[in-house]
Write a structure and sequence with these properties.
This protein is α+β, with helices and mostly antiparallel strands and about 325 residues long. It starts with a helix and ends in a 20-residue tail after the last helix. A hairpin with a 2-residue loop joins strand 6 and strand 7. It is built from four helices and 13 strands.
Length: about 325
Amino acid sequence: MRRRAGLVLLAFAVFFAAMSPLLRWYAFPRLAKIPPSQYQETVLEAKPATLLDYTTLKAKKVDKVTIVQTLKGNVEESERIERSVGRDVVVWDALSYIQGPDGKTVSQIPERYIFDAHTQAPVNATGEMVDGDPVRRTGIEFKWPFLTEKRDYEYFDAQTRTSSPIHYKGTRTFRGMEVYYFEQTIPWTKVPMPQKMPIEDITAEQVAGTGMTRWYSTTRMFWIDPVTGAPVNGEEIHKEEMRDAKKMGMPQDTVTAFAGHVKMREDYIVAVVDQVKSQRLLILLLTSYLPWGFLTLAAGFLALSLWLEARSRRRPGGPADAGPAPGPVPTPA
């Protein structure tokens, strides 16, 4: 009976030992994915800020500038691209637009970002663009990979249409969570005029045709949850200038178009932190809790099986319990 129980325990040990790596290396890449229909909105604010007043063509201080960023999953496009690349793909139609203190749109930049649903690596496919310009991304954007590492990553900048390193700067605590802090600085770079201009009936091509140029610099900061790879906070020290501005009738040759320290609004930080905390459990179950738990169970079942086997070999009445062999019987005289 003990041997039969030992064999059952040994079978359990083998089962759980096999399940541990399967969960981590087979189930995790197939289950931990960004849903193709995800929708997300984030509101950031710069308080105070400097903004170009297009009625006076002068930069002025304002109380607040609001940046609204939306990410909308395009399921139809993701299915189309999946058929050609043979893997799960997410297509995000993103829109970032700046609102002045009066609520009117100052500028907006649409994007289409195509990436692998599990690794978040860019998938270069037809339709990938920034503000109508075709691009070919070589770095991450918006989100880091699951199980983010303590290293630099290539990060795509939509204004310059290029990728450059975003540097890991250490581990920090944010709202009770251990996060990785990343920082990237984009030096002053000439960038295209936005297709949607704040002046009605004036196009980007008309402005560029005058010889006036737009320049941009930023330092962006992200606090990343290393388990899900999701940003729980983001900030930018953002600057834009119009140069050769006298060609457009402006009083100075270099005029600030926008400058400010952009931060996530508090209510959105709270919502994002709560969402990320709820999503961490699935990733930790697949990569840590269950694999290590199954290994522990396998070791326990194996130890118990060996113990029962040893007990069965020492059962009462068995060969190990027999007394010494009897000696010769003496014969009567």
